[in-house]
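Action item from last week, closing it out:
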Amino acid sequence: METIADTATRCRDGVEVDDMCVAGDVKLGRDVRLSKFINIYGCEIGDESRIGPFVEIQKRATIGRRCKISSHTFICEGVTIEDRVFIGHGVTFINDSYPRATTAAGDLQTEKDWRVEPTRVCAGASIGSGATILSNVTIGENTIVGAGSVVTRDAPANAIVAGNPAKILRYLATTPERPHEQ
């Protein structure tokens, strides 16, 4: 992978260049397509993935190969998105179960005052627009998360989950001949 520093568009000292803020420590795979009005730093994006406008991807987040991240999505530190994943518009990931602005002493929290809680989206999964994905969950391979859902616990492979909290509605066929639901 090459870093964004190898390309013409980058974020220099926090200044937007060409309607993008892309830090020099971003690792981009081959043929990654970046839209305008994005903010990405310290992350890794795999080959042939597409990042839509108004997306933020934080440090230590990983996007696999051939993913599509739609507009207005927030992918925080600790999120791993495997290959061939679709993320709809306005999806939000969470990495802290008990967020607080201050410590018990009343000081503003810093990175040393909390622990990143991981989230994993397995290969081939699709997350509908407006979904919220809490921390410490795994969304299984080929699983579909319905639009507007709140995923509070693991979703198994090949499932369709939806609601608040998201519940299993049914399962998809798993044969190569019938990759979609029966």
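Closing note: The longest strand covers residues 166-171.
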